[in-house]
Design goal:
One of its GO terms (molecular function) is NAD+ binding. With about 375 residues, the chain is of the alpha/beta class. Helix content is about 45%, strand content about 15%. The protein is built from 13 helices and ten strands. Bound molecules: zinc ion.
Length: about 375
């Protein structure tokens, strides 16, 4: 037990005093340190306080300016509504289909000068390429990682499973490479040639990504499609065919080091699905198929959407719809636009695609009906075309 100072000897008292003094020194030093830290904290607090005052001033000023701008905007809108009253909403014209034979329908095309042909998967069915939404269409198949094709063929899924999407694309590309254009494709090309030789504007817009229209067009001496090679900015695009959903035969850099289109090569079968993903020669990123996924938007650069819109703004006098259920937005917009303007619309389908407006329905397979529909024009085309 420690002694009290009264019980201590003189030398013990000296040692005890020295210890007490040392302990006091230590306490004083710690107090000084705490004081210094408190001062520093106070300085930081002062700074924060002044900043928060500034912030609340800035917020108040922003709030005032925002309220002012909103009041002006509402006033402007109000003025404009008075100056230009809202147009009454146009009602969709009632559905008035008129069933016709292809030969009768062809008579309606006689003096037309600015025609759109809009094609879909039904046209290529006779070439052995499965449609998407039919009974045994591609979209009814089971896909890796997804319940539906609308989930599968998406940019989001490509980011997660590029090997699965490429496996599917390579399979479909092989189908398309083995397929030959059918009588439907051939007579459309002959009609395009007739139009070019006779000063009629004919815009072929396709939702198909099989490349069969362009393959044929490139063989036509009349259409004289410009030859391009890999590396040319327009490589993969054909002036006389609008491939609004892309073309399976091409791919582009997923990292977008450039937007140039490269031909897709058949991968070696011994490679794993990861190894079969094509790589960009410039930046070594993976390549992506040049097709529009379900969760992507149309662009001018890749899908020529501005050109399609400007065609719609021109004086179109006939629209021919071939083999499509019009389930994609741009295609259905084209048709709605023409029906609202009462432009002659001929629907060539096994099942009619239109459900409003006055439509000429030609029921049947396109490879059988198109040769009849275009026969009066094909026989008149110049003898120099093949
Ligand atoms: Zn690249």
């Amino acid at each position: 037990m420690a002694k009290s100072p009264d019980e201590m000897t003189q030398p013990e008292i000296k040692i005890w005093r020295a210890q007490v003094l040392k302990s006091l020194d230590e306490t004083t030093r710690k107090c000084d340190e705490t004081l210094k830290k408190t001062k520093e904290s106070k300085k930081i607090l002062d700074e924060s306080l002044s900043q928060s005052e500034n912030l609340s001033e800035k917020w108040k000023s922003y709030e005032n300016r925002f309220n002012h701008a909103m009041k002006n905007l509402v006033l402007q809108i109000g003025k404009q509504m008075v100056l230009t009253p809202l147009e009454p909403i146009k009602e969709e014209p009632a559905y008035e289909p008129e069933k016709m034979s292809p030969l009768d329908a062809s008579k309606l095309l006689k003096h037309k000068r600015n025609i759109i042909i809009l094609t879909g998967a039904g046209l290529s069915a006779a070439s052995g390429i499965p449609t998407f939404r039919g009974n045994d269409g591609l979209w009814t198949k089971k896909y890796k990682y997804c319940d539906s094709a609308e989930d599968f063929a998406t940019l989001r899924n490509f980011k997660e499973h590029p090997e699965a999407l490429w496996e599917w694309m390579h399979y479909r590309l092989e189908l398309c490479k083995q397929a030959e254009p059918n009588e439907g494709h051939k007579t459309i090309l002959q009609f395009q040639e007739y139009c070019k030789l006779n000063g009629v504007k004919c815009h072929l817009i396709t939702q198909n990504i099989d490349g069969l229209h362009t393959r044929l067009a490139r063989q036509s001496e009349v259409l004289a499609v410009e030859e391009t090679k890999q590396g040319d900015p327009s490589h993969g695009f054909t002036d006389c065919v609008f491939e609004i959903h892309g073309n399976l035969n091409y791919s582009r850099c997923f990292a977008e080091c450039s937007k140039d289109l490269k031909e897709v090569q058949t991968p070696k079968s011994e490679l794993s699905s990861e190894e079969q993903i094509p790589k960009c020669e410039e930046c070594e990123s993976i390549m992506r198929p040049h097709v529009l996924w379900f969760d992507e938007c149309y662009t001018q650069e890749l899908h020529r959407v501005d050109e399609v819109r400007s065609i719609l703004d021109s004086e179109i006098d006939a629209l021919i719809i071939v083999g499509t259920a019009l389930q994609t937005s741009l295609a259905s917009n084209i048709v709605s636009h023409c029906l609202m303007k009462n432009i002659l619309t001929i629907d060539i389908n096994v099942e009619p695609a239109c459900h409003f407006g006055s439509v000429v329905e030609v029921c049947g397979k396109s490879e059988e009906t198109l040769p009849i529909l275009f026969s009066p024009f094909i026989s008149k085309k110049s003898s120099k075309s093949s």
